[in-house]
Specification:
The protein is built from nine helices and 13 strands. By secondary structure, the chain is of the alpha/beta class. It has two domains: 190 residues, no CATH class; 71 residues. Strands 1, 2, 3, 4 and 10 form a five-stranded mixed β-sheet that branches. It has a three-stranded antiparallel β-sheet with strand order 5-6-7, with no helix packed on it. A three-stranded parallel β-sheet has the order 12-11-13, covered by helices on one side. β6 and β7 form a beta hairpin. α4 runs parallel beside α6. The C terminus is likely disordered.
Length: 316
């Protein structure tokens, strides 16, 4: 499962209106890249333990969090675990072996699954946890999924990432008291004297880990921006099996950044290791245009017809 941060904040607000506290949304650092249609890519550096309610049954699903407004997308393993069945002929859906019901369809024709069915009746999940789903893919990227002591709170996650908070969820935690209102700040501020000694607790260690994790991610992004700054606004052309590199020279004269690959400059594509290195470099730099011109003799040999049978005339 994957969800955009902005969408997740709306989900937390929505669940808060049904009494689900922000303390039930727990986060964990991770490292996962998702590829969408075209060349779109999204990196997930966090996952969320998402409380959901399906057909009046409460449980949790682990979901990767990416930047932006990506909707909550549910993969096949979770759908299979929830026993989701769809009948496209009648446009009906069945979940957890319940009776067939008319499917709810989004504006783009996608099938929607209700994940708050019963949240208002049991916002704290006191009736018990009926399912706790974590996919094989999520399992490989989480450092600890057996218990929640390694997870951090929503406030810790927001502090580490610098992302925007939900609009209503924090003060909805205190509805019925004078502690918070919609006009007040929704993120509680910690006013503590700095010149004190603190016991090193697990919570403090987790906070330090979150800080170092956020700092490391920021440093990596900054280094990538610096290393790629020189390519901003310039298009890149590669000529493979370049020979005299006449085509690369023409592109260079027209303002392109060019690079040539040939045995003369150390790129022997007869060697498997060289071919692998080239593909890795291509994935890393993603040039705008690549021109492949393998030697003509190789093309001729590859297209040369085979003899029809062993007794055919082989010539002198």
């Amino acid at each position: 499962m994957v969800i955009g941060h902005n969408t997740l904040m709306k989900v937390i607000d929505h669940m808060g209106e049904r009494g689900v506290k922000t303390s039930r949304f727990l986060f964990h650092p991770t490292d996962k890249v998702f590829s969408f249609g075209g060349d779109a890519r999204r990196e997930a550096q966090w996952s969320v333990r998402l409380p959901v309610y399906v057909r009046k049954q409460h449980g949790y699903v682990e979901c990767f969090v990416v930047e932006g407004d990506t909707p909550l997308l549910i993969g096949r393993p979770i759908l299979s675990a929830l026993q989701v069945k769809t009948d496209f002929a009648t446009n009906k859906i069945s979940v957890l072996s319940h009776d067939w019901q008319p499917a709810v369809v989004g504006e783009r024709g996608e099938y929607l699954l209700q994940l708050d069915d019963g949240a208002a009746e049991d916002p704290d999940g006191e009736a018990g946890v009926f399912f706790d789903y974590i996919t094989d893919e999520t399992f490989n990227y989480l450092q600890n999924n057996q218990e929640t002591s390694s997870y951090v709170t929503l406030l810790d996650y927001l502090t580490a990432t610098g992302r925007r908070a939900p609009e209503k969820a924090f003060y909805l935690n205190y509805v019925g008291t004078a502690a918070f209102s919609a006009e007040e700040a929704v993120v509680p501020e910690l006013n503590e004297p700095k010149d004190i000694r603190r016991e090193i607790t697990n919570k403090l260690l987790k906070s330090m880990y979150m800080h170092f994790n956020a700092w490391g991610n920021k440093r990596r992004r900054t280094l990538e921006e610096v290393l790629n700054a020189h390519t901003t606004g310039r298009r890149t052309f590669w000529e493979v099996y370049s020979g005299d590199a006449l085509l690369a020279q023409t592109f260079a004269e027209n303002g392109w950044t060019v690079r040539t690959f040939d045995i003369a400059n150390g790129w022997d594509f007869e060697v498997a290791a060289t071919r692998r290195a080239f593909l890795e470099l291509q994935d890393a730099e993603c040039p705008d245009f690549i021109w492949y011109a393998p030697p003509l003799q190789e093309v001729v040999n590859a297209s040369k017809p085979q003899l029809a049978h062993p007794g055919a005339d082989r010539g002198p």
